[in-house]
């Protein structure tokens, strides 16, 4: 038995750990692929065959409306916030409120975000705060959460990145030369809510539903909490 899971990258730490332990427990194979939610939307809409999806609330609403998931299996996995990351040798800037956050970005040598869901939010936020023109070519857009962290590490002190706290923690655990400063200020924070669900096209609906229950159980929430997902 091989279950295919397509998951948002922000919840990678917990999903990978739980899928591996569950596969050992039930003697099955679970193939987990992590991708950006915008890309996932396109793949699912095009009819790609997977058994379980883990995605943001908006994406799940789309999947439900188009009949791609089994609504009764949809369950809350957790919520992720966006954090500010700098090089490990840099002084941590003050990002305690919106004005401090703006000053920190304006003093940065480079400002990094990705082109996934949280990155789209950051891009709109920079424009809303009147920073887009001022930062100009100092803004670097990369193609994944992991790339945010590696770019900040490569650019050195002076670089600032904004990414999902869960992804930042994973990269720090891997030894990437960065540190988490703090979550973005509450007034401009972007909270992404993630759900898991079995797909309507799954050839193993019972097994898919069982895996969703494992990913969204009380025990799983403790594992996700340790990876920055509350």
Level-1 CATH class name of the largest domain: Alpha Beta
| DSSP helical segment count | 10
**Assembly annotation:** single chain
Percent range for helical residues?
40-55%
CATH homology superfamily of the largest domain: Periplasmic binding protein-like II
Main sheet properties = 5 strands, mixed
The run of helices and strands is: EHEHEHEEHEHHEHEHEEHH
Shape: elongated
Q: Which structural class do the helices and strands define? A: alpha/beta
Instruction: Return residue spans where pLDDT drops below 50 for at least 5 consecutive residues.
Output: none
In whole angstroms, the N-to-C terminal distance is 31 Å
CATH fold node name of the largest domain: D-Maltodextrin-Binding Protein, domain 2
The value of Rg in angstroms is: 18 Å
Rounded average pLDDT? 94
Q: Could you give the order of strands across the largest sheet?
A: 2-1-3-10-4
CATH architecture descriptor text of the largest domain: 3-Layer(aba) Sandwich
**Integer tally of domains:** 2
